[in-house]
Amino acid sequence: MNIQIINGPNLNLLGVREKSIYGDSSFESYLQDLRKRYANITINYYQSNVEGEIINKLHEVGFTVDGIVINAGAYTHTSVAIGDAIAGIKAPVIEVHISNVYKREEFRHKSLLAANCKGVIAGFGLDSYRLAIENLVNG
């Protein structure tokens, strides 16, 4: 099985920014733990702060991987284009959020991606990614 994780803007700063919301672990250290836990699965990782690069990655892998876990960050709430890219690919996509977006600012309560995703997982910290992978693995 081959899973692609895509992180959007500012998620390269995990472990450094707003620790009270996002925790103090970098994504890279968490990714090492995920890869150990799922040693029989290929987990690819991509992060970009640029909307078009995220769309290009979805197009690149969306017909070949078995599933995609995406945390589009703030683009979740603003990008019709990423939502359209998800709608246009074959791989199932699960939207994840580290924080519980529904306990935050009102604008974060609306996702422009969710309608095109298999599901949404939010509020479980970095464990949101593991929960998404579990769903992709176990269907």
Automatic annotation (TrEMBL):
The active site is at Y22, H97. Keywords: Amino-acid biosynthesis, Aromatic amino acid biosynthesis, Lyase. It catalyses: 3-dehydroquinate = 3-dehydroshikimate + H2O. The record marks R17 as: Transition state stabilizer. One of its GO terms (biological process) is quinate catabolic process. PROSITE patterns: DEHYDROQUINASE_II (PS01029). It is an enzyme of class 4 (lyase). Homododecamer. PANTHER family: CATABOLIC 3-DEHYDROQUINASE. Belongs to the type-II 3-dehydroquinase family. This is 3-dehydroquinate dehydratase. It comes from Mucilaginibacter ginsenosidivorans.
